[in-house]
Amino acid sequence: MNTVDLTEAAARRVATIAAKQGKPALLRLSVEGGGCSGFQYKFGLADAPDADDSIATRDGVSLVVDPVSLDLIAGAEVDYVESLSGAAFRVTNPNAASGCGCGSSFSI
Fold first, then answer.
1. What is the pTM of this model?
2. Cβ–Cβ under 8 Å, residues 69 and 78
3. Host domain of residue 32
4. 71: nearest Cα among 52, 90, 88, 58
5. What is the CATH number of the domain that holds 13?
6. pLDDT tens readout for residues 58-68
7. How many Cα atoms within 13 Å fall on the side-chain side of residue 92?
8. Torsion sign (Cα): 79, 4, 107, 28
9. Exposed, middle or buried by CB within 10 Å (0-12, 13-18, 19+), for 82?
10. Is residue 15 classed as helix, strand or coil in its secondary structure?
């Protein structure tokens, strides 16, 4: 089964955010139409996974992805990166033919 992985850095960041907000350490990643390259990644904390979600777990943190989004990002890795330009979750997507400069959108 194709899945999406969560790095240690991303798991730590999700755990921190969830604790501050008093929510479960459950990050939802979805793909929506839009962005400068055709598709864009959307992140948000979830209260519970949906029945058909794919779930990846690391260090007590879960990443959930719906089946439609999973088709576009299967095999991807979600990381949390801090740099001079800011801090953000980054998706390394082997299915993306191209991406934008900001790294938040891609095309197939």
1. 0.85
2. no
3. 5-107
4. 52
5. 2.60.300.12
6. 999 999 999 99
7. 9
8. negative
9. exposed
10. helix
